[in-house]
């Protein structure tokens, strides 16, 4: 990470806390590693990102519906999905610092360093070896690579490593009144399985025809041993996933459709297209026949924010085998196409986006430190340039002074607008300081009520990004703000 990028990332983290976006969880008790709380503005921004995703996936598609499945699920589900036996990370400990690391991440960091130093062949060779060892779970081989490439512990600086061991990432607990009689249940490590086990419930109750999708937003839990990069890797996180069920043989057509559709969704927010890229998986999961990540260039490098996977019929087949319930779809449309009626297990295209990563991406993309100095006059501002539809607060109402009937007029406007928009009222400090406060939390519009407002029912609207001001009629405010913050600007 370059000094500028490192500084940007640190500034975003401190800004997030100072203005009520993200707090370390349990901070008064010295925090809890890799767990964070969303503050008053963070909760609003997070909800707006969810709304944007839900509208794009469910509201805009007649053949996609949404569900909300339980976090606790029958333990056999995780056996069928492969999580009980195969959901683990290769971990290695440094004996001097007593710190634990993911072996593959230590190697990935080394690969990134080789690439930065122009040692491309070394980076490619290490990548190939690492992929090969991960595929066959050659843990001794991973340790050999760490030693061979002289990878030191970032904390102690030594290379005094333990062997590499596998750690299961699922949290488990007991369900039942008596501990010795209780069944072990797991906190779900992903939201997808709640969709798969409800496939037939949704299909039959909603009279859904293939192709159709089921979407879900929900919490998932992974015992990530390493806390890294703020809210990038957390033990408790939120996913926005959609499983799209298709006829076998059509999966690549739909895979390519969703690959393009999902990148378009990201770019509609006005993010620099150069900061996004596709990363095709060379090493596929055993159940997949195609997989790609949409990666964003964070200050610490390109990282995955969304995955699109062609999962074949693996999940539904596994649940059919373990539950002994048929997970097949009867396709009437095949007969209309001159083919015999078909009972088959659908193939699945998955789109899965990390909400917390999307939140971090949105904060990083929006954050700017601007120098507004003119001549000898020093001035600057911190501003969050959120897309207006995502902004936590849509507009602030600011009476120019606390007297002469201006607060009363401002309150009238506030009461009128807050039914449709999330608003703030602020009458403390100079108007300039109040503008800066709203800039810092990303409010796109400030409505200033002055003495002229009492005479002709007009106010000044100040635009966050350009800082330009315009005089408008109070009666026009609902339409003006409504048009500027409308979801149509993103979804139209």
UniProtKB/TrEMBL annotation:
<feature type="binding site">
    <location>
        <position position="190"/>
    </location>
    <ligand>
        <name>substrate</name>
    </ligand>
</feature>
<dbReference type="Pfam" id="PF03129">
    <property type="entry name" value="HGTP_anticodon"/>
</dbReference>
<dbReference type="InterPro" id="IPR036621">
    <property type="entry name" value="Anticodon-bd_dom_sf"/>
</dbReference>
<keyword id="KW-0436">Ligase</keyword>
<dbReference type="GO" id="GO:0006426">
    <property type="term" value="P:glycyl-tRNA aminoacylation"/>
</dbReference>
<dbReference type="GO" id="GO:0005524">
    <property type="term" value="F:ATP binding"/>
</dbReference>
<dbReference type="InterPro" id="IPR006195">
    <property type="entry name" value="aa-tRNA-synth_II"/>
</dbReference>
<feature type="binding site">
    <location>
        <begin position="304"/>
        <end position="305"/>
    </location>
    <ligand>
        <name>ATP</name>
    </ligand>
</feature>
<dbReference type="InterPro" id="IPR002315">
    <property type="entry name" value="tRNA-synt_gly"/>
</dbReference>
<dbReference type="InterPro" id="IPR004154">
    <property type="entry name" value="Anticodon-bd"/>
</dbReference>
<keyword id="KW-0030">Aminoacyl-tRNA synthetase</keyword>
<keyword id="KW-0547">Nucleotide-binding</keyword>
<dbReference type="GO" id="GO:0005737">
    <property type="term" value="C:cytoplasm"/>
</dbReference>
<comment type="similarity">
    <text>Belongs to the class-II aminoacyl-tRNA synthetase family.</text>
</comment>
<dbReference type="Pfam" id="PF00587">
    <property type="entry name" value="tRNA-synt_2b"/>
</dbReference>
<keyword id="KW-0067">ATP-binding</keyword>
<keyword id="KW-0648">Protein biosynthesis</keyword>
<dbReference type="InterPro" id="IPR002314">
    <property type="entry name" value="aa-tRNA-synt_IIb"/>
</dbReference>
<protein>
    <recommendedName>
        <fullName>Glycine--tRNA ligase</fullName>
        <ecNumber>6.1.1.14</ecNumber>
    </recommendedName>
</protein>
<dbReference type="GO" id="GO:0004820">
    <property type="term" value="F:glycine-tRNA ligase activity"/>
</dbReference>
<feature type="binding site">
    <location>
        <begin position="350"/>
        <end position="354"/>
    </location>
    <ligand>
        <name>substrate</name>
    </ligand>
</feature>
<dbReference type="InterPro" id="IPR027031">
    <property type="entry name" value="Gly-tRNA_synthase/POLG2"/>
</dbReference>
<feature type="binding site">
    <location>
        <begin position="222"/>
        <end position="224"/>
    </location>
    <ligand>
        <name>ATP</name>
    </ligand>
</feature>
<dbReference type="GO" id="GO:0015966">
    <property type="term" value="P:diadenosine tetraphosphate biosynthetic process"/>
</dbReference>
<feature type="binding site">
    <location>
        <begin position="354"/>
        <end position="357"/>
    </location>
    <ligand>
        <name>ATP</name>
    </ligand>
</feature>
<comment type="subunit">
    <text>Homodimer.</text>
</comment>
<keyword id="KW-0963">Cytoplasm</keyword>
<feature type="binding site">
    <location>
        <position position="102"/>
    </location>
    <ligand>
        <name>substrate</name>
    </ligand>
</feature>
<feature type="domain" description="Aminoacyl-transfer RNA synthetases class-II family profile">
    <location>
        <begin position="132"/>
        <end position="399"/>
    </location>
</feature>
<dbReference type="InterPro" id="IPR033731">
    <property type="entry name" value="GlyRS-like_core"/>
</dbReference>
<comment type="function">
    <text>Catalyzes the attachment of glycine to tRNA(Gly).</text>
</comment>
<dbReference type="InterPro" id="IPR022961">
    <property type="entry name" value="Gly_tRNA_ligase_bac"/>
</dbReference>
<dbReference type="InterPro" id="IPR045864">
    <property type="entry name" value="aa-tRNA-synth_II/BPL/LPL"/>
</dbReference>
<dbReference type="GO" id="GO:0070062">
    <property type="term" value="C:extracellular exosome"/>
</dbReference>
<feature type="binding site">
    <location>
        <begin position="237"/>
        <end position="241"/>
    </location>
    <ligand>
        <name>substrate</name>
    </ligand>
</feature>
<dbReference type="GO" id="GO:0004081">
    <property type="term" value="F:bis(5'-nucleosyl)-tetraphosphatase (asymmetrical) activity"/>
</dbReference>
<dbReference type="GO" id="GO:1990742">
    <property type="term" value="C:microvesicle"/>
</dbReference>
């Amino acid at each position: 990470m370059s000094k500028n990028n490192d500084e940007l990332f640190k500034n975003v983290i401190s800004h997030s806390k100072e203005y009520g976006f993200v707090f370390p969880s349990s901070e008064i008790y010295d925090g809890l590693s890799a767990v964070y709380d969303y503050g008053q503005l963070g909760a609003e921004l997070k909800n707006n990102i969810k709304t944007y995703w839900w509208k794009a996936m469910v509201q805009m598609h007649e053949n996609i519906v949404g569900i909300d499945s339980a976090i606790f699920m029958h333990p056999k589900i995780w056996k069928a999905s492969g999580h009980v036996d195969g959901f683990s990370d290769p971990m290695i400990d440094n004996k001097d610092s007593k710190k634990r690391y993911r072996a593959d991440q230590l190697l990935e960091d080394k690969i990134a360093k080789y690439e930065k130093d122009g040692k491309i062949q070394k980076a490619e060779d290490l990548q190939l070896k690492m992929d090969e060892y991960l595929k066959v779970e050659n843990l001794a081989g991973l340790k050999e690579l760490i030693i061979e490439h002289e990878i030191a512990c970032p904390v102690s600086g030594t290379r005094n490593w333990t062997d590499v061991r596998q750690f299961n990432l699922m949290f488990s607990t007991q369900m039942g009144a008596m501990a010795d009689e209780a069944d072990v249940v797991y906190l779900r490590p992903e939201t997808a399985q709640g969709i798969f086990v409800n496939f037939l419930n949704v299909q039959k109750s909603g009279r859904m025809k293939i192709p159709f999708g089921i979407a879900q937003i929900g919490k998932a839990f992974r015992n990530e041993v390493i806390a890294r990069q703020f809210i990038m890797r957390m033990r408790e996180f939120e996913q926005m996933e959609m499983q799209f069920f298709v006829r076998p043989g059509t999966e690549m057509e739909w895979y390519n459709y969703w690959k393009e559709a999902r990148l378009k969704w990201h770019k509609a927010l006005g993010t620099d297209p150069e900061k996004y890229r596709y990363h095709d998986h060379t090493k596929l999961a055993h159940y997949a026949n195609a997989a790609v990540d949409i990666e964003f260039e964070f200050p610490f490098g390109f990282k995955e924010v969304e995955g699109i996977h062609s999962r074949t019929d693996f999940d539904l087949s596994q649940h059919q085998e373990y539950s002994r319930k048929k997970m097949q779809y009867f396709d009437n449309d095949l007969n209309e196409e001159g083919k015999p009626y078909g009972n088959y297990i659908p193939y699945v295209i998955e789109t899965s986006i990390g909400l917390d990563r999307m939140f971090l991406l949105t904060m990083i993309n929006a954050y700017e430190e601007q120098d507004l100095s003119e001549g000898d006059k020093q001035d600057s501002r911190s501003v969050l340039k959120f897309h207006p539809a995502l902004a936590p607060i849509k507009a602030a109402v600011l009476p120019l002074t606390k007297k002469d009937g201006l607060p009363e007029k401002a309150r009238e406007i506030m009461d009128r607008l807050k039914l449709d928009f999330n608003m703030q009222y602020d009458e403390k400090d100079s108007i300039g300081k109040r503008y800066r406060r709203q800039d810092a939390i990303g409010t796109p519009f400030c409505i200033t009520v002055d003495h002229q407002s009492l005479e002709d029912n007009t106010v000044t609207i100040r635009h966050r990004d350009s800082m330009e001001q315009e005089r408008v009629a109070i009666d026009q405010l609902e339409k003006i703000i409504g048009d500027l913050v409308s979801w149509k600007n993103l979804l139209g």
